[in-house]
Design a protein that fits this description.
Layout lengths: L1 H4 L3 H19 L28 H9 L8 E6 L1 H7 L3 H20 L4 E4 L4 E5 L5 H20 L12 E6 L12 H18 L20 H11 L33 E11 L4 E12 L7 E2 L11 H22 L5 E7 H4 L5 H4 L7 H7 E6 L7 H11 L5 E5 L7 H6 L4 E5 L11 H17 L3 E5 L4 H9 L4 E3 L14 E2 L2 H6 L3
Parallel strand pairs: 6-8, 8-9, 9-10, 10-11, 11-12, 12-13
Antiparallel strand pairs: 1-3, 1-4, 2-3, 5-6, 5-13, 6-7, 6-14
Length: 510
């Protein structure tokens, strides 16, 4: 405390305000007002320097007026217990574990607050817009939920937690030069561990895999998470959405039979025209499902059986894994195109979403945040806006942006806008019989959707276009993206960006 007594009041206020303001940019977190900004700090970064930025004056004023309504503490989320428990396995699963942690933190952090990774197993949270009691409650909730998700509820409430929440005053967390004191952060975590150790027995080694489970080519930790989900032992694995009727899982689609255990699955990539730059600048993943040799494939969303709680995440895990392999192959060819990966609400709308999204941790963060787009489909018609918003918030740090699939009729655009996305998609392969019509009326319906979406601040992408006139109409009609057999044939993996000016389409046959 003697160190702080030597500072003047003005000096302390400035020293505290500057790191608090710069935290989101320097530590790798995101604020609600800057979600488009790429913020990267590798976990192994050794520097703890914090510098000033444009928010300093505003935060100095906030601290000057602090009367106890706002907290001036840093909250720490530590995975040191899990790190030590899994031992040598940590080096193999660390990035996926930290990705899960980022999703949980984003889910509960709140608008205007920021976080960052510091070291291999520590996150630092700064609650800029949250009262002290609520900030502490959120930090504890994050640690509890994260600890449960890592292995399963069989470890919750029995012994020492896998994730810890600690806190330290902002003044004690800084050196005299205004840098983060990493030793002080570690001491705060150690103090919390000591308190917990007095209240619970020591934990033995954790085996992330179940040796009795069938052998599969999957990371052991994810096998354990899937096992906990199958056994339904954890209420946190239940969907966060409102109850939905089976018919709402894939509105307008013909019933798809259950997924056979021996179904053949493959993934192709559909070249996609982009209004931005007038190029074939994106490639959209398309799953193909063949139940019996010689039968036609169920493509895209039609591969998903309606209201099948087991087949949907199984298909999504395949799509995610295969997409990662395709994206990494494109990286090897120095590809800079965007990759659109469709995933179902039946997986991403649950708190178990990271068991599907985990493979994306194998893609460098710079590639994810610049090129990866998630196309979220299969939303139930009666989905509550708050549930969609929570899911989008949790997924957003993983990718460049999230698209929301909507039906042509009654597209619920306000719900998508409230969720904070900037694009909606329409898949013509999902049109119910009542919406199938000739090219002229289809283009008119798409144009109505585009105008309504623009009024809500949303761009529209059209998938599955098969006829030349609709290809030309969507390219010339102001739609953000378009793809389908009428544009180009599918490819085995993403390719390079290709020029495709509007003039080329306008000059062609219609």
């Amino acid at each position: 405390m003697a160190k702080k007594d030597k500072r003047s009041k003005g000096g302390l206020m400035t020293t505290l305000a500057r790191p608090l303001a710069a935290f989101g940019r320097l530590m790798g977190g995101r604020s609600a007002a800057a979600e488009e900004e790429e913020i990267v700090l590798p976990a192994e970064a050794g520097s703890s320097s914090l510098v000033d930025d444009s928010f300093t004056l505003a935060l100095e004023g906030l601290l000057a007026e602090d009367d106890g309504q706002y907290q001036t503490k840093l909250h720490l989320i530590s995975l040191v217990e899990f790190h030590e428990a899994v031992g040598d396995k940590w080096s193999r699963i660390a990035e996926k574990v930290m990705l899960i942690a980022e999703g949980v933190i984003n889910l509960h952090l709140g608008a205007g607050n920021v976080f960052g990774r510091k070291g291999s197993d520590l996150f630092v949270l700064v609650f800029r817009n949250t009262p002290a009691a609520e900030a502490r409650r959120r930090a504890v909730r994050i640690a509890q939920e994260l600890g449960t998700r890592l292995v399963g509820s069989q470890f919750a409430g029995h012994d020492r937690p896998l994730a810890l929440a600690a806190e330290i005053s902002l003044g004690d967390a800084l050196t005299g030069d205004g840098e983060l004191n990493l030793e002080a952060l570690a001491a705060a975590v150690t103090e919390t561990r000591a308190v917990i150790a007095e209240q619970a027995p020591a934990r033995g080694p954790i085996a992330p895999a179940d040796d009795a489970a069938p052998r599969r080519a999957v990371d052991p930790k994810w096998a354990a998470m899937e096992r906990a989900a199958r056994e339904n032992r954890d209420p946190n694995w239940q969907p966060v959405s409102v109850e939905r009727a089976p018919a709402d899982m894939a509105p307008g689609l013909d019933a798809t039979p259950p997924l056979p255990g021996d179904a053949a699955l493959s993934l192709v990539w559909r070249p996609t025209w982009m209004e931005e730059g007038e190029v074939i600048g994106a490639y959209r993943a398309q799953v193909l499902r063949v139940d019996q040799p010689g039968e036609p494939a169920y493509e895209g969303s039609r591969a998903y059986p309606t209201a099948d709680g087991e087949s949907i995440p199984k298909l999504d895990r395949f799509v995610a894994g295969a997409a990662v392999r395709g994206i990494k192959a494109a990286m090897a060819d120095s590809g800079s195109a965007r990759m659109v990966v469709p995933l179902h609400w039946g997986s991403l709308g649950t708190t178990a979403r990271m068991s599907v999204l985990g493979p994306f941790a194998d893609i460098p963060e710079a590639i994810r945040t610049q090129n990866l787009i998630i196309d979220l489909f299969g939303l139930p018609a009666n989905l509550a806006p708050v549930s969609l918003s929570e899911a989008v918030t949790a997924i957003r740090p993983l990718c460049r942006e999230i698209m929301i699939r909507v039906p042509l009729t009654d597209p619920a655009l306000n719900r998508a806008a409230l969720a904070g996305v900037s694009m909606v998609t329409i898949d013509l392969a999902e049109l119910p019989n009542a919406d199938k019509t000739d090219d002229e009326h289809l283009l008119a319906a798409l144009e109505r959707l585009r105008r309504e979406a623009r009024a809500a601040g949303l761009a529209v992408c059209v998938w599955g276009v098969r006829r030349r006139r609709v290809v030309v109409g969507t390219v010339l009609g102001g739609f953000a993206m378009m793809n389908g057999p009428g544009l180009m044939k599918d490819l085995p993996r993403p390719a390079k960006v290709l020029p495709a000016p509007r003039s080329r389409f306008a000059a062609g046959p219609s």
